[in-house]
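Appendix B, Record 12. Input sequence as logged:
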Amino acid sequence: MAIRGYHAHIYFDPPELETARAFAKAAHETFNVPVGHFHTAPVGPHPRGSCQLSMRPEQFAQFAAWASEARGDLTIFAHGLSGNDLDDHTKYVIWFGQSEALDMTIFD
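Logged structural output:
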C-alpha cells in the first residue's frame, strides 16, 4: 500500500491556540501547505483541539525536520494517507512530542 500524502495535526489546549496558529502560519509560509480549520474541541479521533496540515509525500521529510524544532511545546500527530483510515491512524503514525491516546471507536 503506497502512502499518497500526509496529514499533520497540531494539538493544542485553549491557552495554546495562538501558538498553534503561529506554527500553522509558519508551516504554510515555509512549505505552502494547506491549513485546515482550528477545532477548539476534540473532533474525530483527536483528543484535544487540533488543526490539520496536508502535504504531499515529497514535502513531508522537510516538514518533519523543521517541525521537530519549530513546534516548541506543541504536540504534532502526523500520519500517512494510505486509503485505510484505521491503518493511517495506527500503523503509519509519527509523533512530534509526547504521544496521546486517540479515540479509535470512530473507525468501528
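The first strand starts at residue 6 and ends at 12.
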